[in-house]
Amino acid sequence: MKKIPLSILDLVVVKQGGNAQSAISETVRFAQHAEELGFERFWMSEHHNMANIASAATSVLIGHVAGHTDKIRVGSGGIMLPNHSPLVIAEQFGTLETLYPKRIDLGLGRAPGTDQQTAMALRRNAQDVSMAFPSDVKQLQTYFSTENSTAAVRAFPAEGLDIPLWILGSSTDSAYLAAQMGLPYAFAAHFAPAQFRPAIAIYRNNFKPSKQLAKPYVMACVNVIGGETNEEAQINATSLVRMFTGIVTNARSPLQPAGDLPDSYKIPEVRAMVENMLACTFIGDKETLRDNLGGFIDDTKIDELMVTTYLYDEVAKFKSLDILRAALE
Questions:
Q1: Neighbours of 103 (CB within 10 A)
Q2: Residue 4 buriedness (CB in 10 A; 0-12 / 13-18 / 19+)
Q3: CA 10, CA 69: separation in Å to the nearest integer?
Q4: In order along the chain (329 residues), what is the average pLDDT of each group of 10 residues?
């Protein structure tokens, strides 16, 4: 098995019995644990109008987590650029990079990370700003470049800073853009695995070298639940399955403890949708994870593995990370 960097994606999910404050506190502890284990980066994602996800102000949380860690890279998985002016994002991430040099990543997504009505409330000047995503990414690059020093509009303290940009994807559309711009590509296989393999093939086949990147770099995000035994891991994974069942049935709730699956999961159509979304999910003890993740890494030839770990019990969540690290040593 090829040894590759390991990273974390965290949605700052609110648990049953908890609130946004407790979710953020746990995210900080999780990032600190990942740093102790030698993980490469810790990303958080931007979502809006979702009561059980506390990562809406993603840039603020990146600064908070970076301030409570020492060396792990911290970034966005991602900033949903259609919601923001490129100038504002350049200023925010330039400030973060100034505060925490050589530790900040800027992952960029095309989707709004919310419903259309909320998207309009976030950025009210256009009906479909996602169409401007390629030009917005280029504008961001311009604000970070020293070549912009004579422009009328400049981004401070962003100008001249080396902040790695990533293109995020859950379909093949983003693969073409990442390849054309010569940027690293992070795919959301943890919830949209269907187009993962076609997308990374498109990216690799069409890649054009850039100032930032000489050759293609693929990071896959998958769900991982580790346990001392396969049975323990399967029990712990019921929280993940319950969460995705709630997404599919539009019955969202705070993250639930491990337990019996809801009756709605027994509906064949619902179960099929949940299983399709969780196709890139790896559950088991150290040996099982080593075999299954090792096969996935060797087969897809990814350059980096990012994982999400939806576990209700914090001790079990930390232990899952320990088991994952041991499995891939």
A1: 19
A2: middle
A3: 15
A4: 94 97 98 98 95 96 98 96 94 98 97 77 65 93 97 98 97 96 98 96 98 98 98 97 95 95 96 97 98 98 98 97 97
What would the two tokens of residue 302 be? 């990814």
Of residues 32, 71, 5, the one with CA closest to residue 328: 5
Do 199 and 187 touch, CB atoms closer than 8 A?
A: yes
Angle between helices 286-300 and 196-206 (to 10 degrees): 40
Tokens of 80: 């949903």
Q: How far is CA 64 from CA 19, 45, 57, 75, 329, in A?
A: 17, 14, 11, 11, 30
Q: Give the span between the Cα atoms of 23 and 42, in whole angstroms.
A: 15
Per the CB < 8 A criterion, the answer to whether 185 and 203 are in contact is: yes
Residues 6+ apart with CB under 8 A from 11: 44, 45, 47, 53, 55, 308
